[in-house]
Specification:
Radius of gyration of chain A: 14 Å
Structural class of chain B: mainly beta
Structural class of chain A: mainly beta
Helix content of chain B: under 10%
Shape of chain A: globular
Oligomer: heterodimer
Number of helices of chain A: 0
Number of strands of chain A: 11
Radius of gyration of chain B: 14 Å
Distance between the termini of chain B: 40 Å
Largest sheet of chain B: 6 strands, mixed
Number of strands of chain B: 12
Largest interface: A-B, 28 and 27 residues
Strand content of chain A: over 45%
C-alpha cells in the first residue's frame, strides 16, 4: 500500500466552528507532514512529526493544532479559523529520517478547506 | 539564502512543441531532487526523482530530467507536449543531511498547452 489518504476531501466551515482533518498511511513511514497550499503556489510546510513527536512547527498560528495519535495517523484540529486560511491542506509521509538520503515524501490528495 | 529557483513562471506553448523547465538550487552537498505536477484542481503527483546514479532520469508521461551537478540544476524536459500536460510544475529539493525532513519547493511553473 503506497497511498496516503486524507479525509474529508472538501470541508466548509464557519469561523466559530471546530473541525478536524485526518490523514492516514500504512507504509510504515515514521515521518508525517502537514502542508498548506494556496492556488498556483507551492506547498508551505506547517508541521512535521517524527516518530510521533512534533519535530518542526513553522510558526503556525495556534488555531491549527496537530496531533499524531500513532505512527499511521495524523490529525489537524482547526478552531476559530479565518477566511484567509482557506486553502488545500496536504498531508505527506516519508521514511524517517535523520541521516537517511532517501526521504521521498508521498503526498495525499489533500483536503480543500473553505472558511466562511 | 538557500533556495530553489524556477524561472519563467508562466509558459504557453502549442501541442507538439518541446518543453523545458529550469530548476536551480543553491544547497551544497548531496541533495535529492524531485519534480511534481499538479493538474488543475488536483493533488501533487510525483513526475520523477533523482537520488544518485545516472543523471538523466526518466519519469512518467514522457518526462525526463537531467541533473547537472556543476550547474546545481535539475531541468525538466518533454519532447512533445499534449493539451493534457497543462498543469503547474514544481521542482523540489531535499537539503543535505541534517535537514532531511524538509522539502524545499520552487515557486512553480504554470504551463498552458494550446490545442
Amino acid at each position: 500500500d503506497t497511498e496516503v489518504t486524507q479525509t474529508p476531501k472538501h470541508l466548509v466551515m464557519g469561523m466559530t466552528n471546530k473541525k478536524s482533518l485526518k490523514c492516514e498511511q500504512h507504509m510504515g513511514h515514521r515521518a508525517m507532514y502537514w502542508y498548506k497550499q494556496k492556488a498556483k503556489k507551492p506547498p508551505e510546510l506547517m508541521f512535521v512529526y517524527s516518530y510521533e513527536k512534533l519535530s518542526i512547527n513553522e510558526s503556525v498560528p495556534s488555531r491549527f493544532s496537530p496531533e499524531c495519535p500513532n505512527s499511521s495517523l495524523l490529525n489537524l484540529h482547526l478552531h476559530a479559523l479565518q477566511p484567509e486560511d482557506s486553502a488545500l491542506y496536504l498531508c505527506a509521509s516519508s521514511q524517517d529520517g535523520f541521516g537517511q538520503r532517501y526521504n521521498e515524501q508521498f503526498f495525499g490528495p489533500g483536503t480543500r478547506l473553505t472558511v466562511l | 539564502a538557500q533556495s530553489v529557483s524556477q524561472h519563467n513562471h508562466h509558459v504557453i506553448l502549442s501541442e507538439a512543441a518541446s518543453l523545458e523547465l529550469g530548476c536551480n538550487y543553491s544547497y551544497g552537498g548531496t541533495v535529492n531532487l524531485f519534480w511534481y505536477v499538479q493538474y488543475p484542481g488536483q493533488h501533487l503527483q510525483l513526475l520523477l526523482k533523482y537520488f544518485s546514479g545516472d543523471p538523466l532520469v526518466k519519469g512518467i508521461k514522457g518526462f525526463e530530467a537531467e541533473f547537472i551537478k556543476s550547474k546545481f540544476s535539475f531541468n525538466l524536459r518533454k519532447p512533445s507536449v499534449q493539451w493534457s500536460d497543462t498543469a503547474e510544475y514544481f521542482c523540489a529539493v531535499n537539503p543535505p543531511l541534517g535537514g532531511n525532513n524538509r522539502l524545499a519547493f520552487g515557486k512553480g511553473n504554470q504551463v498552458v498547452v494550446i490545442p
